[in-house]
Amino acid sequence: MIKKIIAFTAIVVALVACSTVSMTGRKQLNLVSESEILSASLSEYQSYMKTAKVSTDANATAIVKNVAQRIAAAAEAYLTVTGQTADLQNYAWEFNLTQDKDLNAFCMPGGKIVVYSGMLNLIGNGPDRDDELAAVIGHEVGHAIAKHGNERASQQMLASMGGSVLGAVVSGASAQTQQIVAAAYGMGTQYGALLPFSRKHELEADYIGIVLATIAGYDADAAITLWQKMEAASGGANPAPFMSTHPSSTKRISELQKSIPKVKAEFGNVSQPAASSEPATTTKKSTKTSTKSTGFKIG
Ligand SMILES: [Zn+2]
User: Fold this and answer.
1) Which of 122, 147, 112, 142 is nearest to 206 (CA)?
2) Which residue of 100, 190, 197, 220 has the smallest Cβ count within 10 Å?
């Protein structure tokens, strides 16, 4: 009987919850509804922004916003041509530069992008500045559009709830779900210090990042110089939060070197989408225009 229940649960969970990361074709488990993910992560983001020091450097902030807008527009174009228009409505982009010496950046579900000044300082002001920044932001947006947070929350939910997971899936929002979502994002105690993603998620975000950077018109090769800088800056016992996950820089760089020529060939001739503007908090969605004409093919 128990076996039957487990089998039934597994089937229903599979039906309800299995989705595919469209850019890579990988199957993933998403047990938590998008609305729960969005509301939990929005409240964590708002708490972070209350305590964070927003940069007062207007020039540096403009640099970050410009690149982030173009990556956001590329993500919207990508979601549009792949038919993920239902996801599009979940994005209300916000772009921030905060004063923090850590080498870090993140993009919350729903498009809340934060770059730390430490990351911008590391990148510096060379000719590849915007391309390297696009690699960082593309990577973070990659985690968001591939729903890695939902997948991690789902795995934790499955582990902690076991057989009662079906009830959780069906019943929707609950205090327990909210807690698990917050824990999955590593939030609550240390705002912005997101838990490391898995190696698989990191490499997938690297890949999506170079796709988005390429669609946005940046040079994807900068992902390699970025990782070299990161490695040089944070070798030793205290890796930067941004890179404190399993894949070594060497592994990431070798994967990127394999992917970049293919990504450039496939996505490099795309007419650039218009920059997605950061909406005022009252506007729901900004750019649905100009994305239809981008005739790029998603492989
Ligand atoms: Zn990452």
Assistant:
1) 142
2) 190
| Tally of domains in the chain | 1
Task: Kindly state whether residue 293 falls inside one of the protein's structural domains.
Answer: no
What lies within 8 Å, CB to CB, of 91 at 6+ separation is 72, 75, 76, 110, 111, 285
Angle at 82 between CA 78 and CA 86, to 5 degrees: 90
65 domain residue, yes or no:
yes
Token pair of 238, please? 């205290």
- Distance (angstroms) between ligand 1 centre and the Cα of 235 equals 17
Q: Is residue 298 part of a domain?
A: no
Q: What are the tens digits of pLDDT across the range 264-296?
A: 999 987 655 655 666 554 434 433 333 333 333
Q: How far is the CA of 202 from the centre of ligand 1 (A)?
A: 5
Q: What pTM was estimated for this model as a whole?
A: 0.77
Cα of 179 vs centre of ligand 1, distance in Å, is: 22
Which domain does 216 fall in, by range? 2-267
Q: Which of 136, 122, 105 is nearest to 224 (CA)?
A: 136
Residue 141 within a domain: yes
Q: How far is the CA of 230 from the centre of ligand 1 (A)?
A: 13
User: Which residues are catalytically annotated?
Assistant: 140
